[in-house]
Amino acid sequence: MKLTRAAAIVGLIALLAGCAGRPVIPGSDIGWAERERVLGAIASWELNGRMALRLADEGAQGSVRWQQGASESRLTLSGPFGAGGFSIEWNDAQVTIERANGDVVAEYRGKAALERFIDEQIGWPLPAEQARYWALGLVAPGSPARRLFDADGWLAGIAQDGWQVEYAGFRQVSDQWLPRKVTMRRDATRMRLVIDRWQPAD
After folding, report:
1. Tens digit of pLDDT for each residue in 14-43?
2. pLDDT in tens, 115-164
3. Euclidean distance between CA atoms 85 and 98, whole angstroms
4. How far apart are CA 110 and CA 113, in angstroms?
5. Contact present, 106 and 3 (Cβ < 8 Å)
6. SS3 133
7. How many domains does the chain have?
8. 187 phi and psi, to 5 degrees?
9. What is the mean pLDDT of residues 49-61?
């Protein structure tokens, strides 16, 4: 069974609108370099929120639970009122797609499993590996990037690998500021994520 392109994309990266959660005047007391060092060392985390996708004339949206481990990622997605739930779990060597009842819809194995999943199920380039960093408000390792800051000194965006990542609102979790809303754009593809709850595991 082949997923629709929109559903498959929604399943990979995690992204909807929301309000900002930050002080009116943040000042310059947020050390972004130190923040990146601290958050980059967190091996696992979880977020809950809502995701929306627009790809040319296709669109999809629903609730998302993203569980990120040191080497594995798992997205659990569902439509309105829990309808049509499924999950996608991936690591460097395997991608597994399951329905809510546990039935396996598709499985890819081998070193290029993630790339084959994107090519066969989606057909468009997606930032599957970078998104775990962008969701935290971090630059993904391994390629050049440009950070953008607003007039108040908050991180407003990241430009990397042809993608424009935009941030609108941060909330404080423990002693770190984490994104409330993330939008990822490239050509006709737009993914938007509103994060209702962050839970760093470490």
Report:
1. 333 333 344 444 454 678 889 999 998 888
2. 777 777 766 667 878 988 999 999 999 999 999 998 888 899 999 999 99
3. 9
4. 5
5. yes
6. helix
7. 1
8. 55, -125
9. 82
- 116 Cβ contact partners less than 8 Å away, ≥ 6 residues apart: 95, 108, 110
Tell me the two tokens of residue 27.
Answer: 């000042």
HSE of 34, CA atoms in CB hemisphere, 13 A: 7
Element (H, E) at 54: strand 45-55
Q: Cβ(155)–Cβ(36) under 8 Å?
A: no
Query: For position 139, which CATH number holds?
Result: 2.50.20.10
Question: What's the DSSP call for residue 122?
Answer: I
Torsion angle (degrees, nearest 10) of CA 1, 77, 65, 182: 100
Neighbours of 51 (CB within 10 A): 25
CB 164 within 8 A of CB 130: no
> What is the tens place of the pLDDT at every residue in 139-149?
999 999 999 99
- Rounded to whole angstroms, the Cα distance separating 39 from 46 reads 13
Could you tell me the end-to-end alpha-carbon distance of the chain, in angstroms, rounded to an integer? Answer: 37
- Are 16 and 194 in contact by the 8 Å Cβ rule? The answer is yes
C-alpha 131/C-alpha 153 separation (Å) is: 23
- In sequence order, the 6+-apart residues with CB closer than 8 A to the CB of 31 are none
Domain that holds residue 12: 5-200
